[in-house]
Structures are given as structure tokens and as C-alpha cells.
Amino acid sequence: MAPQINPSILSADFARLADEAKAVEGADWLHVDVMDNHFVPNLTLGVPVVESLARATDTPLDCHLMIEAPDRWAPQYVEAGAGSVTFHVEAAAAPVRLAREIRAKGARASMALKPATPVEPYEDLLPELDMLLIMTVEPGFGGQAFLDIMLPKIRRTRELISRHGLELWLQVDGGVSASTIERCADAGADVFVAGSAVYGASDPAEAVRALRNQAEAATAKAAWACDH
Predict the structure, then answer these.
(1) Which residue among the candidates 28, 62, 173, 186 is catalytic per the annotation?
(2) Is 148 designated active site?
(3) Contact yes or no for 43/142 (Cβ under 8 A)
(4) For the chain, which has fewer Cβ within 10 Å, the N-terminal or C-terminal residue?
(5) Does the annotation mark 33 as catalytic?
(6) β-strand partners of 4
């Protein structure tokens, strides 16, 4: 799969979300961070805003739920128009059941891991997912510095995906920029969430194109991609 760039509206102007979505219409997905001020120490937006965004843009919505009780709330984001819904395994009571419900409602099911959460205990769950998100910062705030110590975890996750022959997307979120995206791609990521690197640029659409070019070039030389 070609690398995908998902601009994060956490770094956008919340007073102009429709315009900010249109500014990156060349992106693969629009990443929507939902925070409840409980699972993470920040509060952002919820179902009504996702419904409005889904009407305002043709770019599919990738909703990342940094919330408590995702088993209860995640299905509502599919109904609101999200094409992909990510829940945190640390918050989910029944991750397999939840992933199956998200899929049954018509969206891609994704599971996120905080930096300190290892991937290995969840190896058997991977076939139930369409995407796995490796957080490369502590979730809760945009603009944080990329954690290089996550690169080995990305590599191990890619090895697990390859070992089982899965068509599983591997997303990274946190501190992804022109200076870090190539390392992520080399390690095995193929979906990249970029916030300030896109919306902090003078031309967000060009920033998306430049990041995609970097990711494609790094992927083409990556050992994991050459093995396929």
C-alpha cells in the first residue's frame, strides 16, 4: 500500500474547520482527535462536530477516540460519518467485540497503543483490525516532540503484521514532520498523522504532498517493504 498522509485537525483553526478541511483535500484521510478530559487531560470535540465535518468535506474521516468507555461511544462515530474509528486498547473493555461492531457498522476498525503499551500481548487480536495506531507521543496534546524510542516498537509491529500475512495498516501519530517521517516509514509505518507539520505550514496542501513524497521515497528503500 502506498503511504497515506492524514492531517490532524487538532492543529487546525477550530473556528474554521470546514475551510481547514478543504485546505487539505489532497490528503488521504482527515484525522479527528476526540478527547474527553478523562482518558487524556484535554477536551476537544464530539459527535456533532464529526457529523458536521462529514457533511463539509469529501475527505474521509479518521476518528481517534482518546476517551473512556469507547465500547459505548465508538459506534456513534461511525453513525456520525467516520470512515475509520480508532479506540485505545487501554480504555476498551472488550476490544475484539468493539472492533467487530465498528466493522459491522461499515467503518474500518483501528486500535491505538499508548507509548508504554507493548504490542506483543495483542498479537492475537490483530486479524480483527484494519489498522493499528502506535502513538509516538503521549496522547492528549498536539505539537509534542516525536519519541524516537518508539521506532523499535514500530519495527516489531511491522514484523508481527508480516509474520501473519495481514493487510493491516500501521499508523503513527505524534511529532510526525519532515524531520521524522522518513524514520517512521523506514521502521514500517504506512499511515502518518501530521498536525502542526501540515497546518503550521503556509501551504497545507503542499505540506501534505511533500510529506507523502518523503514517505514514498523512504518506503521504497525500506527493508520491510522490499521483502514484500
Answers:
(1) 173
(2) no
(3) no
(4) C
(5) yes
(6) 191
